[in-house]
Predict the structure of TonB-dependent copper receptor.
Amino acid sequence: MNRHKQILTSIFTASSCILSPFSTFADTQGCEQDSCDEHIVVTGELMREPAKVFTDPKKPRLPLPAYDGAGFLKTIPGFSIGRKGGAGGDPSLRGLGGSRLSIVDDGQHVYGTCGGRMDPPTAYIYPEAYDNITVIKGPQTVKYGPVGSTGTVLFEKDRHSFSEQDMEGRASITGGSADRRDYLVELKAGDEKHYLDLDINQSSSDHYQDGSGNSVQSSYDRNNYNLALGWTPTDSSVIELAYGQSSGEAEYADRANKAREISNENLTLLAQFEFDHELINGLEFQAYTNENDHIMDQFDQGVNAGSNVRRSTYGGHLWLDLTLGDNWQATAGVDYMSSAHEGRAITADVDFGLDDLLSKPFNDNMRYENSGLFIEASLDMGAGTLLSGLRFDHWQTELFVAQQGKRTDELYSGFLRYELLSGNSQYYLGAGHAQRIPDYWEIMKSSSENYAANKTEKAFNLEPEKTTQMDIGWIYQADIELSSSLFYGQIDDYILIDANTKSASAYNIDATVWGGEFGISYPFSDNLSAQTTLSYSRGQNDSQDVPLGQIPPLEGRLSLDYQDGNWTAGLLWRVVAAQDRVSIGQGNISGQDLGESSGFGTLAVNGTWKHGDAILVSLGIENLFDITYAEHISRSGAGNDVPGSEPMFQVHEPGRTAWVKLDYTF
């Protein structure tokens, strides 16, 4: 971990990685791997380190500045988002979503509550409030809690130590089509021993229209604030107590239920220390607790239907940074997490309305706890580095509904990766294995084994999913930048969600996935540059000899970027192929295949203007030609009931969308 930072004095700007007059104890690789220029990011960051993508969420970017974590990840090649409206998109990487993608919110695991995935973990994340976002592709780390078999996403904030008493911050405001409004204020203040870090943001939008002028039920309104108080007794240590709260509401085009409340409250304690010791170089301890509260109902439509679900999660980790030899470093750690889900609902003809719902007691649904032990190491070997990791997870899960019961799982995950640096090129080859238990949403589906016997048992006896994957890549950095990555994975006991039965069921199959991403950035001159990215994934249900559901089609992006002094201008052409490899009704907890999809192409334009170090104006127009289209990974639009609108086979994407954003640094 890169924590040996001396106190720096520089100017903090709104759209770059330049560090303010304090040092950071968190990893700042996102800035170190980026050129820190201020053009709009339009195709997503290229991979500049093996198996990893680093990006600065404070940069202006296309599409329209993201309201939640899923919207941000959509800008990175390889990601797809299951659209269900303007909020609550469900991210997947390389066609694999749900708990196969591990989302780490500044050290915390924040899980959703809604059985219909109104609030995936990314729904509680406002990306611009974070300092660094890192995507680790494939099962190529064991450090951050239960392993993400398709990848791990880290949303991270920096920790600070002022060299003298000072205060600084930034503010931004965004306005756009469909009455889109975003406000953000960040304030940092402190002295040599203490600091305060405060961010407040709000985002809202009305229903958007597709390219045909049809209104899509998609409104949302969300508020977030976070406060951190830090103590820095030395230049190489920090203790921080942080509190965060968010609340919001949303409507969706794929269902009649509306989210009356989607709220989160969290508290964390973090301690980081560095040591001048022959063996132990650093220590990090973090403890956290968070609770999500979600109310969904149809009361406003005159229907007596509603439920309230809640999830409480607490946990923490202890990491030790070790030097095992002259060229051998390691991190060893333990972590713990416990999460409990409970709910209450209207009983027909007995309870009526919101007051009756909120007066009912909560009933336990499921509880699980995880204890993990890992070691992750790197060994320098000439021009190359060998990285490896091994992890053991002990799970205890208890089901309180249907057949009820308890289960214990002991799982092993690990990886081995070799990285070689040769001139301007980096090469890597990695093998990873990840095991995961069935998550809450999979267990709550019907058990296919008992369905034929007309039983109502849940899928509590699903086998753990086991992914073994190879990752290989080449990165080239000079005037021309190039990154390429390929993967091939075998998934034993893949947990498939099948909606072709009377009620959706979950069962195990074997599957194969493969594909990759490619990107190239080419400077035509000092002012004009181009960037192209391609991403492709393919999946096969080996057990049933059919395509694996919910796999996105081939996608390409081409951007042109022109810079002249304080001005930039650019365009983005996004092209998506048709997808005819489908398994209708099959998929994962994020959704199931609805049918084959048509290809499409969209064009967007953008520009920025920078005034000194204080003001940055960015603007864009997306879907310039106002076409009507839907992504292949999308929910059904049958729940669209905005007055004057029409239901849709799939949820359509927004039509022509214009926006402007103002950043001010002080």
Residues 1-37 have pLDDT under 50 and may be disordered.
